[in-house]
Design brief:
With 322 residues, this protein is an alpha+beta fold. The protein has a domain at 146-157 and 180-285: 2-Layer Sandwich (Nucleotidyltransferase, domain 5). 37% of the residues lie in helices and 18% in strands. The chain is built from ten helices and ten strands. It has a five-stranded mixed β-sheet, sandwiched between helices. The radius of gyration is 25 Å and the shape is elongated. It starts with a helix and ends in a 6-residue tail after the last helix. The chain binds zinc ion (ZN). The site of zinc ion has 8 residues, from loops.
Length: 322
């Protein structure tokens, strides 16, 4: 609409009655959602915008498609938009993405999320894992000071798979063997006393020193004091990499002991385990292959670290705030 005509139209708005105002607002609401999402995408991706094919930083505007500005790379000629190469590329219904980010903040089920946002539940399931793919990467660069580490186990699950690599469980929720076995997924969580937390799904069965090397070592400050239970893998790992290590002998009933001015225990990390497990119950079982996404999701919610839908959305498109 041209400007003079728009002014005239806009001037008539004051003469609307209440139901008419409602109707106009309802008509504009989806567009407002879309505008907000498009603005966030461009704000978030503009610094350091580069070609997804060659990484070149020089590009020029090249029309609009699917509500987004397209760009053309000056070096290789490829066209792209601000979502190319992100997990959200080519997803539809952008106007609903912020509402969906709020669904994630509220930990709603696939079905409830679909009802709230007004899309099919297959869509909210797909969105859940696309959104979380990069949200889960937002982790502290390193853990410092006293770092508690401990593993927890969850029954391995092939929920949603068309073929199982084992016989189906007749009565759900129990491992066919007692103790720690290949039927359990091992999840390592490490948390320092500032609350910075990392986690890793290390595999099936008992934790090994090699797995600690892979998942804990790169994020552990060399000056840190590692505190764990008396599992031999931690001792072997700490000795090999010359990391200061204190173990609490939980089996002997020791939960806390003093070391100078420090309290040596793994209660913070165990509390984190409990919060994660209690929260996960709300989803009535999740597939093992998606566990890293759920761990990342939980970390986003922990202590309200991510507190707004916009902030969560920016993480989903790759603004990592370590
Ligand atoms: Zn290029």
């Amino acid at each position: 609409m041209k400007a003079p005509r728009f002014r005239k139209w806009f001037a008539t708005l004051s003469s609307l009655n209440q139901p008419q105002r409602r109707q106009v607002l309802d008509a504009l609401h989806p567009a407002a959602g879309l505008d907000q999402v498009v603005a966030l995408i461009s704000q978030a991706r503009e610094p350091g915008r580069c070609c997804p094919r060659c990484g070149g930083g020089r590009c020029h505007r090249h029309g609009f498609a699917n509500d987004l500005q397209r760009f053309r790379c000056c070096a290789c000629g490829r066209t792209f938009n601000d979502l190319s190469g992100t997990p959200l590329a080519r997803l539809r219904h952008k106007a609903k993405w912020l509402a969906y980010s709020q669904v994630l903040l509220d930990s709603l089920s696939v079905r409830k999320g679909a009802d709230r946002v007004g899309v099919h539940r297959n869509t909210t399931f797909r969105w859940r894992h696309r959104f979380l793919a990069w949200v889960k990467l937002d982790r502290p660069a390193s853990l410092n000071g006293i770092v508690e580490a401990d593993e927890m186990f969850l029954l391995e699950s092939q929920k949603g798979s068309r073929t199982l690599d084992r016989p189906a469980r007749r009565r759900g929720g129990h491992a066919p063997m007692r103790g720690i076995s290949r039927h359990l997924d091992c999840i390592l969580v490490a948390r320092d006393r500032n609350g910075q937390t990392i986690d890793a799904v290390t595999g099936r069965g008992a934790l090994t020193a090699a797995q600690l090397e892979r998942s804990l070592l790169p994020r552990l400050d060399p000056q840190a004091l590692l505190v764990t239970d008396s599992h031999a893998a931690y001792r072997a790992f700490a000795r090999k990499h010359r990391i200061a290590h204190e173990a609490v002998n939980l089996r002997a009933g020791v939960r806390v002991r003093r070391l100078g001015s420090h309290a040596i225990h793994v209660q913070n990390v165990n509390a984190y385990h409990q919060r994660f497990k209690a929260w996960l119950m709300g989803f009535r079982g999740v597939a093992s292959r998606y566990l890293p996404n759920y761990l990342g999701w939980r970390w986003a919610l922990d202590g309200e670290r991510v507190s707004s839908a916009a902030q969560l959305f920016c993480l989903a498109i790759g603004v990592i705030n370590r």
